[in-house]
Every structure is written in C-alpha cells, then in structure tokens.
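Now for a concrete sample entry.
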Amino acid sequence: MTRVSVAEHKGQATAKDVRVAGLTVSDTRTEETDDGGRLVRALCQEAGFSLIDHTIVRDEPAEVAALVRKVVGDGDVNVVLLTGGTGIAGRDTTVEALAALFDKTLDGFGELFRMLSYQDIGPAAMLSRATAGTIGQVAVFVMPGSTKAVRLAMEKLIVPELPHVVAQLAKTPRPPRPGPPTAP
C-alpha cells in the first residue's frame, strides 16, 4: 500500500474548489454592524474561496436549523461558516440548533479553537462552544461572533485546512435521495 504524505494529501485540494455560505446568528447585528460576518467574507475572498452568499439570521434555533438545511440542500456550497450564538447565555442556541443536523462532528475544531483562545484570553476560553461538523458533503463551522474570535478561527484553523476538508468530503458518496413512491 502506498502511503501519501500530509503535504501530498493536502495538495490535492485547491481554494477554487471551496464554495462558502456565511451566516451570522444574532438578534442585534445588522449589515452595518456585522463586523464578524464582514471579516468572514474578507478572509474567504483573500483566500480565493468563492463566497456564494451571506445572511443574518435571528438567534432562534428553528430558524437557524431551517436556513442551514436550505443552504446545504440547495447544493451550491460545500462549506457553511456561522458566527454567533456559541456562548452560554440563554439566547446562544446555535450549537443546539445544528447538533441534530450533523452527520459527523469535527471535535478537533472546537478543541483547538479553545486551546488557541486560551493563549489569548485565559480561562474564559472555556465558555466558547465553537464547534464543527459535516452535513452530507458540506462542512459546517460555528464560531463566536466577535471579530477577534472570527480572526483566530479563520486564520489559524479554517482557512489553512478548508480546501483539504472540502476534498475529503467530496470523496464521500452522497446518500441516496428518496424517490417518488412506487405503486404496489
């Protein structure tokens, strides 16, 4: 069996293959005040990713889940990047909204994010519930909404690895879609 190095493995993916939808989860952010969402868009464009859409959605679990289902179901993107709703306050429900949608979780993302965040802000990093997972062939990353947290997650973790993640998910066969009922 031929072993492929990490560099060779990652070299199979390119930024042009990455198609992103951004979602800001917030009850208070507007287009003018959505600094975290604006930073996501800028960093995606700088990395050469295709930014398909960006939307602000209220921090209502059913609305967040429905929008993510729609974005994933449309088939236009292979990555969804969400900001906001990852804290421990009562209205922070993004993690709960998405948990049931994930086919697989990427536990390492949250673990690494909190480790890197700890280096900056100390023990308060444990309050972040940043998470990631997959829904079919789509990678979903959930970041806190602050620009400092978005920059950390994007620059240190997401942007460098995203083409590789997309390439790996492209190898995953799509589950069969249910067809029309057949007559007995």
